Amino acid sequence: MTGQAQQNKHVMEDEESWDLHWTRRSAAITSDEDKPEAMSPVSPAEEEPQHLRKRNLKHHGSHHHHRHPSMLATDDALALEAQKEQDFWTQYKREQRLNAAQHNAEMEQHDARMNELYANPGIAPATVHGLMIDAGSTGSRLHIYEWEPRTLANRKEITSAVSGDRISFPGTESRWTDRLRPGLDTFSSYADQQELDAAMEAYLKPLFDFAKSVLHAKQADFGNYPVFLRATAGMRILPADDRARVMASVRRVLNNVQFNPFLFQNEQARTLSGEEEAIYDWAGVNFLLGDLVEQSTGAGTVVNPQKTHGALDLGGGSTQISFYEPHEDIMSNLFKFQIGQAKHWNLYAHSFLFFGMNEAIHRHQATLAAGKTSKERVVDGIYDPCLPKGAKSDVRSDIHLSAEGFETWTYNETYPSGTGFYQATLYNDGKDAESDVKQCLALAKDLLHLENNKWCNFSHKGDCSLAGVYQPQLPTKSESFGEFIAFSNYHHVWKFLHLKERATIQQLYDATQHACSLNHDDLKVFARGKVEDDQLDSYCFRSAYVFQLLHNGYGFQMNDTIRVSNVINGKKVGWALGAMLYEINTLPWTIENETSQMLPSHKHHHPASKASLQGVFIGFIAAVMALSLTVVFFLRWRRQVLYQQQYEPVKEASNSSSRGKESSPLIPRV
């Protein structure tokens, strides 16, 4: 089974709908299994869009010693590559059937978990709730949050909210999270709108079933609980037309009240920009560490905060960095982050698309295959110093390299796939382990495209990170700056290398060198079950890439320490928490009668309450306006008095000197 396909095993969809979904996908991709296999492959170009084919079963590795087959003619090499392409689609169909077969057992586990949560969800009786769906490149996760009702009982609370001193903050539990695979971007394969909507509904249904199960005691209030869907790099990578089509389907499904009982408006489902993801990463980290809400209260801009922390996120398709710049001099990539009416933060934030872990692996493989003939790719094989000694891996890609050495989708050759896809066999004969480590580190560094920094180094005097992007100097540990928190794929690499939660870049480098010197069997012993077998051979590259990204990319020094963890204070780290913190503080406040007590969340939309509160609200606004007008008139009067005081001596002097002549223009004193 291939690496990415085997990741698709955690599927939690409605059985009948999901089986139908995979049946449609399989039918659209391959012919019946009993059809004779020909040397020329089924043309994927006629059956599935290029971007989907690129993202499915791209890599499948096997562990055995590399053998050099006898020399074959060019035509035979092309035929062999064509056969590999055909085998790819046959294997793809089999794995989809395997996913469907695994579905029954997974659904039993999922149902048992939902029954347990139904009996004991652990939600507070007086809180309100919201849903955030993180639609990532490899799957979607639903997070359920709760917070105190956004109600204001008196004028003091109203003043507090208007002045930015009152912030709502979300709470959650790890068991209030559900997930499924694959990523949302895979649905771009559907050309027919009805089929797309049916598949989308089947895909999202288990997430909404989960939410309804957890929140069942508050079913009457579902219409007041907002649901947000935010897609990340997997959708950003798609062509604009496909991205718009998939997101339009999401909105149609979520606008169906028979399917979605929660509060939804179209803008609540969209693709995040990379910088938004970076900012929400930062907000989530600092919120969990207790250094955000209190320092945000009030109006204006946050200046000289007591403590902040930086955020480093490494996803599958992209990577993000964000931090507060203490000198407030940010020449580019400045993002103003504000929670409700509170102070705003001037933050540096940047996201690098195609620099996520999965895309880095794909680009690395494409670099090795660049310029190779079909015979060199599939017959002789290509040496990959990042593989364990004695290992071999079959890959498939449509990433090409230009003459200048940059990745491109443009190609000039004719490939057996009928498209830009090609096959390649990568191997490591294990002749020189020390050389392998050095070469792997060098290849990983090349992926950062530091050659693009020439102009940035000139225009920004060396304040640059990678790929020609400006970055101010990293803050170092001090009274006002704590540390950088890294998560997602950083955490997976840290765990594989057995590094402590806080480790230096030097320790990362040393552990990477050791791991990359091992063969497959020794590497398996070293991993101690912390990595899936089908991904194990990729972890030398993953470790080397993380080192290069942190050290030669972002600029961390060898003695700098980074804290790596997916959990802080028992809560999952990630952008979803920061996004929900932002979103709930954009929701309107409900103003209640001053003489009444604060009502439960389900009553704040009651028509009678609204009618009685409107008078209080209007009276308050009128009082504020009257006060404002009084201040304006006072300031104008004061300005006039000062003006007269300033020019009266000049006027008197002018009058006395002119003695009946026409007055000259007044000249102010200097």
Give a description of the structure.
With about 675 residues, this protein is of the alpha/beta class. It has 21 helices and 22 strands. Among the domains are: about 170 residues, no CATH class; about 160 residues, Nucleotidyltransferase, domain 5 (2-Layer Sandwich); about 60 residues, no CATH class. It has a seven-stranded mixed β-sheet. The termini are far apart.
Structural class comes to: alpha/beta
* Distance N to C terminus: 86 Å
Catalogue the unreliable spans. Answer: 1-71, 594-613, 646-670
Major sheet size, sense and barrel closure: 7 strands, mixed
Neighbour order of strands in the largest sheet:
10-11-9-8-17-19-18
The total of helices stands at: 21
Helix percentage: 40-55%
Using the CA coordinates, give the radius of gyration: 30 Å
The dominant shape is globular
Number of strands: 22
Mean pLDDT across the residues is 82
Strand coverage percent: 15-25%
Defining key terms:
coiled coil, 22 strands, disordered N terminus, transmembrane helix, 21 helices, about 675 residues, about 15% strand, Nucleotidyltransferase, domain 5, 7-stranded mixed β-sheet, disordered C terminus, about 45% helix, alpha/beta, 5-stranded mixed β-sheet
